[in-house]
What we know:
Layout: H1 30-49, H2 58-80, H3 83-117, H4 141-172, H5 175-189, H6 193-211, H7 221-245, H8 249-257, H9 262-289, H10 294-299, H11 318-327, H12 334-366
Helix pairs in contact: 1-2, 2-3, 3-12, 4-7, 4-9, 4-11, 5-7, 6-7, 7-9, 8-9, 9-12, 11-12
Pfam families: BPD_transp_1
GO cellular component, one term: plasma membrane
InterPro entries: MetI-like, MetI-like_sf, Phosphate_PstA, Phosphate_transprt_permease
Amino acid sequence: MTSTLQKPAQNQSAPEMINPLTHGRLPKWGPYAILVGGFALSAAITLLLAAGGGEFNWTGFAVLGAIFYIAGQWVIARIIEGSRQATNRFVTSLVTAAFVLALVPLLSLLFTLVANGVARFDPTFFSSSMVGVVTEGGGGIHAIVGTLLITLVATLISVPIGLFTSIYLVEYGKGRLSRAINFFVDVMTGVPSIVAGLFAYTMIMLILQTLGIPLTNVRTGLAGSIALTVLMIPTVVRSSEEMIRLVPNELREASYALGVPKWLTISKVVLPTALAGITTGVMLAISRVIGESAPLLIAAGFNIYMNYNMTQGAMMSLPVFVYRSYTQQVGAGAENMLNLAWTGALVLLIIVMLLNLLARMITKFFAPKG
């Protein structure tokens, strides 16, 4: 008995399947092709405008290219995909353009800093001070050491104060005292940096007057650390407070259910869980103050020699070193001083970058598993 079902012929082609979810969509290479076409058209227009003897306008080229790309993508997407997807692509293009626009000054600054800073980025800069320098040579080792010492002391002062304050606000703070602390922390967040320097200078001067000590050591590394402490404390408090609040209450309740006291729960459960975020907040606070020049210029002063003593004599820092080098461009050594200023700024940027990388490593290492 023969079967009534017959197999289709081998040479019969199957009908083309159309996926309704992908039908009427630009191909993946479509936006890139529109981007290339938009900037090619912009380059042609810019070259025509510059044909009369003018220079190629890179800013106009970038702006025209972005306009052609956004407008062209919106028109083509509206024809092929409809108004809804065209609006989506239009808004996405605007957000991307805003991101690139915000990135351009940063990249330009980095390029300028590196291009000008490598002139004196040599072993002499990291091994010599400015003692005896007239026209050539010199370095910033005294400023690097001063920056590290001042920032280290400021961190040792501000981190315990800020951390204990945040613990009190989250775990114990209630009533008027808690509201008053929050108010003053918010006020300290907006304090200008030069006010912090004046505060440290005045405080040291009053202490020396009270003790009957001659006012010869008002500007010291310790005064600079106190000025930076005033700026660091609110940042440490707010970042630590947010990280402690993110610790789940279930962890605290589980510890309390086992009969563990509250102070031990905080030290053994809450703080280890929030340690990664707290470390990141501390590094952000350090990065925020390490580049301050106004408070250090008032409180720590400046010098041209190496000084390891935090309580005796002025202490140079990298921001003040950059400022002093830039303002001392006179005579035959003007170019050398300008190069030293650029190199000092580059070294300061590298230190901040290393601190942020260290914070990320610590965050990754101490982050709660799972």
